[in-house]
Each structure stands twice: as structure tokens, then as C-alpha cells.
Amino acid sequence: MCASDSTYLNCRGEMEITTMVVLKDAFCMSLPNFTNLIALPVITKGATGILNQSMDVFFENTTVVQIEHIPLDLLLPLSGSYVIKFLQLINHIRVSDGLTDSWFRLFIFLFVFRYLRLIVHIVAYNRFKPKPVLDNPKYTANDVTVVIPTVDPRGTAWVECLDRVLANGPAEILVVTVGEDNIREATKYCKTLSLCIRVLSVPAPSKREQVKRAVLETKTAITILCDDTVFWPPTFIPHILAPFEDPLVGIVGTCKRVRRVLGTFGMADFWNLCGVFRLERTNFDLASTNAVDGGVSCISGRTCAIRTCILKDEDFLQAYTNEYIFWGRIGPLNAGDDKLVTRMILQRGWKVFHQNCPEVRIETILGVKGGGSRFLGQCLRWARSSARDNPKMIFKDGLWRQYPWTTYAVLATSIVNYAAVYDPALLFMLCRALRNPAVCKLLGGGARLPLVLLFFWIMASKFVRPASHYWRHPRDLRYAPFIIIFGYYHSWIKLHALFTCWDISWGTRPGIDAAAKKQKTG
């Protein structure tokens, strides 16, 4: 359904479509070779009907699924008109002398590099189809063991987490903790709930060792890893098992949402909102890339379902608990376990699936406990994991061959996309380009309006991924300017993480870091 040749069509004598350079194999779900993305067809007079017809043909095998997104009945007509205007602008650019300006060429390249993925992701996200639950599924809750590693088996969050897991009726729940007090506390409480809960222990706090301890005890076909601050819906297990009907699917991730703790206007409320947007953006990118080429950057360890045969593999467990960086000089790592699991499963040829539907939407707590210092520490840890692992996924694992769109849209982009640098650079390059009269003429004859429009485009693009949250909680729009400022500040967190990626500390849990240090020196 993708065009591959330059064509000249005459439709009923009423319109002409001149395709100068066609977008070859673009927007196909596999995108086998991103280098084939050359340019766009140029549609001239009366092209609306053809555009709508081609869109219908392209999406004939997909179904619109509304999951509290921006309403498609508003989005698609608006985007269609802008697509036509954009294609006409491309036609105008190709015949203009303004394109010979080096600053303008660089601006166009960086602009397209950044915003092509946004446009594609908007369409892919809203066209995503979750896997349905079959009438006679291959796997049920009786085939599931839930592993909950914890270093603090007490408090309301822990109690609610366990209660919600129990409500889904898994075959067994394995709670893995550390320390005599924690073991005693967890055992005492779990005995009052169900016989299907077992409490295990490890000598020192380490999520990887805790997971390994539980995996060795697991007997079911599917293992679900669950953090102790995660809350499942009652429909969770049947829907997270649905993608495993495909025998090639090895791991399934879920959509996540941070609980919005509504409070008075202030810093505590702001940090909670930052946590909300962190997961909203992650959900958007994971669902989009998985819909386009089947890839993901990382299946979150907060909750994911994995075939037990993968986890029980000796080589897998050895690599999982003995990850080192810088040629074996630094480690073993504790943080970033979910990134490693995703990489190893992809390396072994398994498919991944991001099940994005309300029935598997988990809730968690983020940006509440510990305030800003704790949340910033978490951001730094996540950024360090990305700085270490994203280049590995591209160059060492060679995942760009199988998942070219994910490589471009998330992995490669994360390496170069520092908003605090990128946004001013776009404005600067356009400003320099507008010194050329040919560029000014191309963009309408003025030097100020294009800069103003670019500025508002940049600002508007920052509302796309969190749009569903603003739709549900319009009161949070009062924080929008501060969220944008924090986004720019986060660029410096990423830069700091890049130059300190050798630091493998957890950062927000001193007990875990102390145990890791003791293990290393011992």
C-alpha cells in the first residue's frame, strides 16, 4: 500500500497529482528501511478526496480504539487540512532558491528529524489495537505466579498492592524481602490473607537477586513481576495474558498511570504532577513504537509478564545478576534491571507487546514520597540507565535492523534530543536562514512571523503527550509553564547523567546502595 515510484496521475480530468519524490515504504507497520524515507508526494488542486481515500486504504486493517485520547473526530479533519497545506508548502520549497541556503537546509533537517516522529506517533497511538481476551484462552490466572520484591513490607501502599494482586486470583504469589524484621512482618501479614502466598528472603537488598530467588521457585508458565507500590485493576491478569496467544511473544508490558494526589497549589503538588507526566510520556512512546514496528525502548519493571522459561534460563539469570559496564570494571548493576531484561529478550528473538488498554492500566505512586529531591534522584537514575543502555541497543545489539523506527524515534533521539539545546538551536538556525531574502520570500516575505510561528509550534508540541491528562484534569493547566521549564531543566539532568553514567547507585534507597558497596568491598 506504500508507493514506490514517481508517478503522474490524472483523476477524472479534474485534478493532477505530481509526485516528485515519493515517500517509499513510509508509514508501513514494519518500516523495513528508514533510509528509504526520502520526501513526500506533493498534492495540488482538489486533493482532499484522494487524501481521504488513501488514508482509508492505508488504515483498512486497523481499528480506532479510544483510550481517553484526544478525540479523533477533532484530530483527523484538522490534521488532514494541515497535511495538505504542508504538502503544498513542500512543493513550493522545491522550486524555490531558498532551499540553497545552508542554514535553512540544516533547519529543515533538524525540524523533520524531531517532529516526524511526533506526527507518526499521534496517528499510531490513536490507531493502536490491544490484544483481545479469547473465549478459550491458552493461559489463565492458574498459569501465573506473581513475584513481588520488597524492602519495606508494611504501610498502606504495600497492603493495597497485595490485596489487588490477590483479587486477580493468581496461582501463587512470591514475596521476596530481606532482613529478619521484614521477613517476620511479611510472613505474619501474608498468613492472614491466603495460602497461595509464600515469603522468601535474600541475604542483602537487591531487586535482581530477589527476582532470581523467586524465579527459581516458580512453577507456572507465566511470571508477572510486580513492584510493591503498584496497584492492579481487577481485570488485569486475563488481559495481560492475551498477547501470549502468539507463541513468539516473550514479554508483555502494561500502560501505567501515576495517582494524582490533588492538593493545594505548591511544590508537593507540582512534583506529583511531574511524576504523572513522566509516565504519560513513556506510555505514549511505548504504545506508538510498538504499533509501528513492534519495538520498544524498555518494558517497565513496575509490572510486566514474562514467559517463565525465559527467566529460568541459566544464561539469562547469570547475565541478569552479573551485569557490568565499562568492560567489566564497574558492577554488578542493580538499577536498570528492566532495561536489561528488555534487551536480552529482544536479543533472543522474542517479540514484545505493549498492552495499552484500561483493563491492564496499573497505578503507582510517584513524586509524592520524599518530595522533589527523591523525584530528581529517580530522574537521574533513569537517565543514567538510558545513557548506558540505549547506545548498546543500537550498536552492540544491532536492534536497528529489526526495529528501525524504534531506533530512530526513541533510542537515537534520546541521545541527541536535549530540549534546552535543541529548541534554541532551531530558532537560531531559522533566524540565520531568514537573513537570506530568498528564504524570506519562500516563507511569506517576512522575517518575524516564521520565528513566532516556530516558537508557538515548539510550545504546542509539548502538550501532545500529556494531552490526555490535561483532558482529564484541566485544573493542572495552571502548572503548564512550570512543566515546560522543568522539561528544559531535565535536559541538564540528562547531560549530567551522560557524564556520570559510571555511577550505578540506586540514589533513592540508601540501604540498597550500602549493601551493594559492602558486597563489592567484601
Describe the protein in words.
The protein starts with 7 loop residues before the first strand and ends with a helix. Helix 8 runs antiparallel to helix 13 (404-416), helix 12 (371-396) packs across helix 13 and helix 12 (371-396) packs across helix 18. It has a domain at 141-413: Spore Coat Polysaccharide Biosynthesis Protein SpsA, Chain A (Alpha-Beta Complex). The longest helix is centred in the middle third of the chain and has 27 residues, at 267-293. Helix 4 (156-167) links the parallel strand 4 and strand 5 (172-178). It has 19 helices and 13 strands. By secondary structure, the protein is α/β, with parallel strands linked by helices. It is elongated and about 80 Å long. The strands form 3 sheets. The chain has a 7-stranded mixed beta sheet, sandwiched between helices. Strands 1-2-3 form a 3-stranded antiparallel beta sheet.
